[in-house]
Design a protein that fits this description.
This protein has about 260 residues and is α/β, with parallel strands linked by helices. The chain has five helices and twelve strands.
Length: about 260
């Protein structure tokens, strides 16, 4: 960990050995740290059989090269990109979206969604973590028009939203909506008529704050609504003689389980 800190590199993620590009049958590669240098990106570009890829440490310097390498991965179905410094300007160099991409996870702040996301016609699962785009109507319209999006997870913190609105006619195929908001203020979650007609599961985890709902009765296919309150990332159980540690352990387990989905 300490050499990474000296180099200014996060302590998570691994360096790809030289020659990895020769593994043409490799299907899954996680989690590669891009901040080790441009040679890593060349190794990734050669893995033309990749179906699942996870990277960390992307920034504006290595972003263009990474976007270029993705264009050669025609079989890519799952992509996870994480940056501790934010994703603004890091993914704009991708002119076209991976045609077969079904699962996408972006972790890091964004001013707006990259344009290529609009072209993800086969995307089924999307997770935006710490993007600061929750409640952005333009973002919701883009996501709501993705024709095959079935699972949407929005995880954010340090935001204040008056109305988190899901407009009519959007998210036609969505079946699961997972909202995990820590240290946020949301006054109202609103579902307009004919929004999310196929939604079956709604999960909302919030910090200790008041919230109101509007339009829950309009969700035609809803089967389950899960609401939970936490006072920090993994929850802080109330002090008790029995069950305190068990509750903390369960909360942590549920978080880690959802993180891997």
């Amino acid at each position: 960990m300490y050499p990474n800190i000296i180099r200014g590199i996060e302590d998570s993620g691994v360096m790809v050995p030289r020659g990895t590009r020769k593994l043409k049958a490799l299907r899954t590669l996680r989690y590669v740290h891009l901040a080790w240098g441009t040679a890593i990106i060349k190794e990734i570009k050669g893995l033309t059989g990749l179906q699942k890829l996870g990277v960390v440490g992307i920034n504006k310097k290595n972003g263009p090269g990474f976007c270029s390498s993705i264009s050669s991965l025609s079989h890519l179905e799952s992509l996870s990109v994480r940056s501790g410094d934010g994703l603004n300007g890091c993914l704009d160099g991708m002119s076209t979206a991976p045609e077969n991409l079904q699962s996408l996870k972006l972790s890091g702040s964004l001013e707006k969604l990259p344009e290529w996301i609009k072209g993800l016609q086969n995307l089924v699962k999307l997770k935006l973590e710490l993007s600061k785009l929750s409640g952005n109507l333009e973002t919701m319209q883009v996501l709501g028009n993705l024709p095959n999006l079935s699972i949407l997870r929005l995880w954010d913190e340090w935001l204040r939203i008056d109305v988190l609105q899901f407009q009519s006619g959007l998210f036609r195929r969505l079946t699961v909506l997972d909202l995990f908001y820590s240290r946020m203020e949301i006054k109202l979650v609103e579902f307009e008529e004919e929004s999310m007609p196929n939604l079956e599961l709604l999960t909302l985890s919030l910090g200790d704050t008041e919230i109101a709902f509007s339009g829950l009765e309009l969700l035609q296919s809803i089967k389950e609504v899960r609401l939970s309150v936490h006072s920090c990332l993994f929850g802080t159980p109330k002090s008790s003689k029995n069950g305190g540690n068990e509750k903390m352990g369960k909360t942590l387990y549920e978080y880690m389980k959802r993180e891997e989905e």
